[in-house]
Design brief:
The chain is an alpha+beta fold. The protein has helices spanning 6-20, 43-60, 82-87, 89-108, 135-141, 155-168, 207-210, 232-246, and strands spanning 63-67, 116-118, 131-134, 147-154, 173-174, 176-180, 185-190, 193-194, 200-206, 224-231, 258-259.
Length: 261
């Protein structure tokens, strides 16, 4: 599998390298300068860039797992249909990884285990192809430095969350199932038990959603917030390695977690 965004990663590392070395860029007002084929490549600058991009390509090209299956994120904008949910196989895979990794962290940290996990569909940016999976592929799936957080929410706030998920048509979820219509949920099952709005529940998600990202403002009302210090991407990498070894490759998750009429 190829790393298609190595230039993006190289640019970021170069920027941090410049700032970290104490080099202060000089900004001059020159007006609008179009970047096109008329601008010749500077060989000395390109050579300097290559020193970093070559090492980056080597690191991102390390094989970390294998899959016989193709996993893709949701392919549509707007409300997600049940058909789109079914096709978004990557959503269920990454939600499972989030729940598994979060539960392991909770055990090691003497923290209550999350009962379920949710992510946002459009935080997953690229498919995972069949064949060997490289480190750089997961950086393309999750290019953001989002941190995994554990939240304790009151049942009433979870009801608001479930209604919002219904309006979206669904979201990546693991450890729970929802039955929804156009604007509300009708039933929720968490860890095999009927949701009880009188209880509080612990969920795993990311700090982008905690901050109200993609409209998940109800998560701000969490009774307790625990930051794990782990990037979601790193959790994906770790769980991918484990699953590849234990199952001789990644396994599909055909069963839907969001049910629509």
């Amino acid at each position: 599998m190829r790393i298609r965004n190595s230039v993006r990663f190289s640019s970021l590392l170069l920027l941090f390298g410049i700032l970290g070395c104490g080099i202060q860029p000089v900004i001059k007002q020159q007006g609008f300068i179009p970047i096109n084929q008329s601008i010749a490549e500077d060989s000395s600058t390109q050579g300097w860039i290559n020193r970093y991009s070559d090492s980056l390509k080597k690191e991102m090209g390390v094989g970390i797992g294998f899959s016989q299956y193709y996993f893709q994120p949701v392919q549509t904008r707007g409300r997600v249909t049940e058909k789109s949910q079914s096709e978004a196989t990557l959503a269920r895979l990454c939600a499972d990884w989030t729940l598994l990794g979060s539960r392991e962290w909770a055990k090691q940290s003497n923290h209550p285990e999350p009962q379920f996990a949710i992510l946002n569909h459009f935080g997953l940016r690229k498919s995972i192809d069949s064949g060997q999976i490289q480190r750089g592929d997961i950086y393309e799936v999750m290019p953001f430095d989002n941190e995994v957080v554990l939240l304790v929410l009151k049942g009433s706030d979870l009801s608001t969350l479930f209604d919002y998920i219904a309006k979206l048509g669904g979201t990546p979820i693991a450890g729970a199932e929802l039955w929804i219509n156009d604007s509300t949920y009708s039933k929720a099952i968490i860890n095999g038990n009927r949701f009880d709005s009188r209880k509080s529940y612990c969920i795993a998600t990311n700090d982008f959603m905690l901050g109200g990202g993609d409209g998940f403002n109800m998560l701000k009302k969490a009774k307790r917030i625990t930051k794990t210090g782990i990037f979601l991407r790193d959790m994906f990498l770790e769980e991918l390695k484990k699953e590849s070894v234990s199952n001789n490759g990644l396994l599909p998750r055909p069963t839907l977690r969001i049910h629509q009429p």
